[in-house]
């Protein structure tokens, strides 16, 4: 039964592969943010620790969204092996610089997926990834605004504590 359904609904191998790559990227992002959460917690940066724990949850949700989409289209989803998750980070600011780099990388990946969708004329998948492209605008925005706090407040004295206190107030309203 499943095979008959697959004949009607399959996605191309190319799209299946690039989506499974993205599943792995989102899974790695989830593990990375959890590691950042633990590091911030260890540094006494409680709000940053909560911020990254939430980010980690969101990335897992992203991973599952794509994972389920592949299956729902009759493809084969792959539960990814997650390796190279750091334990230590150089600095508070460095953690957010790495976050911005990570999100810019993800945006680039989704642009590549969009390009591939056009190439193979898979407009259903193109439509599916619109949510992720919009999400990337928010994720990059928040990382950039938090990085600005480091410039505006500075880390000297009680600066780190102030940054930690303010970063949870950074939100994206889309305007
Ligand atoms: Fe799922 Fe932050 O990209």
Automatic annotation (TrEMBL):
Gene3D superfamilies for the chain: 1.20.1260.10
InterPro entries associated with the record: Ferritin, Ferritin-like, Ferritin-like_diiron, Ferritin-like_SF, Ferritin_DPS_dom, Ferritin_prok
Its job: May alleviate iron toxicity in the presence of oxygen.
Name of protein: Ferritin
Organism, scientific name: Sphingobacterium humi
Annotated localization: Cytoplasm
Domain Ferritin-like diiron: 9-154
Reaction catalysis annotation: 4 Fe(2+) + O2 + 6 H2O = 4 iron(III) oxide-hydroxide + 12 H(+)
